């Protein structure tokens, strides 16, 4: 039987998009405590089922698929521009297809108005009415409000009518920045993107060691999650746990309790680092303590291969830092990336900042270790020694050399220098991420 928490999530998922949700209403309808209802609503927000906005409340929204993540809902637009909803609240769950700035003549605006658009305009009432009648939401800039006629149209067509205090340029820039951030997030892989939905192989805590070996013989899986009668994860068994176990002994006696787990929303980068750090081959994937899948090292390797083939649509801060640094061919086994200290990489005093410096050190070490073994790495420890500041516009070399490496670890020395000076040195220890 599903828990009360899961019952609330199922109930929220069954509601149509646009429905208003409150803690008191959930508690009353499902006969649960307000604390349980609150925790479930927060979980639903994490799962992308609802969105909570100041002065509006919590609204059921459509769960976004990976290919639609770059789209914003009008409710999110309200939060981004710190706006006020003047009308059309029932349409806040709808997605923004694109935004249009109403800076052209009125007779030319019609060709740009389509359902799903957002018209960003000042106090031009005729343009506001035209937009709503064409199926486009309206965002009024400059702190202006709307007439009673425009508000009535917004409510009639269920199209959000929003007002904000920013000017048109700033408003468009805020929305564009949010869309750009979504493009970056679209390229990030999460556990739920790589874990295949399949029938889980599990054991009950009251089963025997003999049952474990029968399961291994039948399925080939040697690392098996252990669950209770309600499907909650209580442990995990591995060949190491069973090495000296008696055949009629109970699984609960030998299993590893409180195993390392991930959630569907954990990033692959975080999961792979945890795997390398803990030296484990498989991690259960849980949602509200209920196991929904398992993540293996093979899944992680496959995810990294997929990431390397993806076209990067949006640039991260790391991309911006390293994009102007080129790899230099060497013959002594070291790796060199060469580039110029740009103004964006400096402190207010005009010297290379610690954040960009660390990024460059990581990148040089990654290039170097890729030459030794064509594998990814997870940085475990980094010690940096700042010798002197690297001024803006200085052309620098970031030189990485392997000091020692083994089956699981590698140690790399990195030197940041130009032709005459050494600006910093670093010692980096990393885990290999391998099958």
Describe this entry's structure for a reader.
InterPro entries: CBS_dom (IPR000644), CBS_dom_sf (IPR046342), Diverse_CBS-Domain (IPR051257), DRTGG (IPR010766), HotDog_dom_sf (IPR029069), Ser_kin/Pase_Hpr-like_N_sf (IPR028979), Thioestr_dom (IPR006683), WH-like_DNA-bd_sf (IPR036388). Residues 195-253, 255-312 form the CBS domain. Keywords: CBS domain. The protein is of the alpha+beta class and 435 residues long. It folds into four domains: 4-60, Arc Repressor Mutant, subunit A, CATH 1.10.10; 66-187, 3-Layer(aba) Sandwich (Udp-n-acetylmuramoylalanyl-d-glutamate--2,6- Diaminopimelate Ligase, Chain: A, domain 1); 193-306, CBS-domain; 317-433, Thiol Ester Dehydrase, Chain A. It contains 15 helices and 22 strands. The chain has helices spanning 4-14, 23-30, 34-46, 74-80, 106-109, 125-133, 148-157, 168-187, 191-194, 209-219, 251-254, 268-278, 297-309, 317-322, 354-372; strands at residues 20-21, 50-53, 57-60, 72-73, 84-87, 95-96, 98-101, 117-121, 137-140, 161-163, 203-204, 224-227, 233-237, 256-257, 282-287, 290-296, 326-328, 335-340, 376-386, 395-405, 409-417, 422-433. The strands form six sheets. It has a six-stranded antiparallel beta sheet. A five-stranded mixed beta sheet has the order 5-10-9-8-7, with helices on both faces. Strand 20 (395-405) and strand 21 form a beta hairpin. The longest helix has 20 residues, at 168-187. The two termini are 38 Å apart. The mean pLDDT is 83.
SSE layout and pairing:
Layout: H1 4-14, E1 20-21, H2 23-30, H3 34-46, E2 50-53, E3 57-60, E4 72-73, H4 74-80, E5 84-87, E6 95-96, E7 98-101, H5 106-109, E8 117-121, H6 125-133, E9 137-140, H7 148-157, E10 161-163, H8 168-187, H9 191-194, E11 203-204, H10 209-219, E12 224-227, E13 233-237, H11 251-254, E14 256-257, H12 268-278, E15 282-287, E16 290-296, H13 297-309, H14 317-322, E17 326-328, E18 335-340, H15 354-372, E19 376-386, E20 395-405, E21 409-417, E22 422-433
Parallel strand pairs: 7-8, 8-9, 9-10, 11-12
Antiparallel strand pairs: 1-3, 2-3, 4-6, 5-10, 12-13, 13-14, 15-16, 17-18, 18-20, 19-22, 20-21, 21-22
Helix pairs in contact: 1-3, 2-3, 6-7, 12-13
Keywords: CBS domain
Domain CBS: 195-253, 255-312
Organism: Alicyclobacillus dauci
């Amino acid at each position: 039987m599903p828990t009360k928490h899961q019952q609330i999530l199922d109930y929220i998922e069954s509601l149509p998009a646009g429905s208003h949700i409150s803690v008191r209403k959930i508690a009353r309808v499902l006969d649960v405590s307000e604390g349980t209802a609150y925790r479930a609503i927060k979980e639903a927000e994490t799962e992308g089922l609802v969105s909570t906005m100041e002065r509006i409340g919590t609204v059921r929204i459509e769960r976004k698929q990976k290919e639609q993540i770059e789209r914003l809902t009008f409710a999110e637009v309200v939060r981004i521009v710190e706006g006020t909803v003047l009308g059309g609240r029932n349409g806040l769950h709808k997605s923004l297809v694109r935004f249009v700035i109403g800076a052209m003549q009125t007779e030319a605006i019609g060709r740009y108005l389509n359902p799903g658009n957002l018209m960003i305009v000042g106090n031009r009432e005729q343009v506001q009415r035209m937009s709503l009648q064409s199926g486009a939401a309206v965002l009024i800039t400059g702190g202006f409000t709307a007439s009673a006629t425009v508000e009535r149209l917004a409510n009639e067509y269920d199209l959000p009518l929003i007002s904000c205090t920013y000017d048109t340029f700033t408003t468009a820039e805020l929305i564009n920045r949010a869309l750009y951030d979504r493009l970056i997030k679209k390229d990030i892989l999460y556990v739920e993107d790589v874990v295949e939905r399949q029938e889980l192989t599990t054991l009950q805590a009251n089963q025997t060691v003999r049952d474990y070996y029968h399961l291994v013989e039948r399925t080939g899986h040697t690392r098996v999650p252990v669950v209770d009668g309600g499907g909650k994860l209580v442990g995990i068994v591995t060949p190491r746990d069973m090495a000296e176990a008696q055949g009629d002994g109970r699984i609960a006696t030998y299993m590893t309790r409180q195993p390392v787990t991930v959630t569907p929303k954990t990033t692959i980068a975080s999961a792979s680092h945890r795997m390398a750090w803990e030296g484990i081959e498989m991690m259960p994937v849980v949602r509200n303590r209920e196991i929904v899948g398992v993540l293996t090292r093979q899944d992680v390797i496959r995810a990294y291969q997929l990431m390397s083939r993806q076209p990067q649509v949006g640039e991260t801060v790391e991309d911006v830092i390293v994009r102007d640094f080129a790899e230099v061919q060497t013959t002594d086994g070291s790796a060199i990336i060469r580039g110029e200290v740009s103004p964006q990489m400096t402190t207010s005093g005009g010297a290379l900042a610690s954040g960009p410096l660390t990024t460059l050190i990581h990148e040089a070490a990654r290039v170097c270790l890729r030459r030794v073994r064509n594998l990814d790495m997870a940085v475990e420890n980094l010690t940096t020694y700042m010798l002197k500041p690297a001024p803006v516009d200085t052309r620098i070399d970031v030189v990485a050399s392997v000091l020692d490496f083994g089956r699981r670890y590698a140690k790399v020395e990195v030197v940041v220098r130009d032709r005459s000076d050494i600006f910093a040195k670093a010692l980096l220890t990393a885990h290999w991420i391998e099958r």
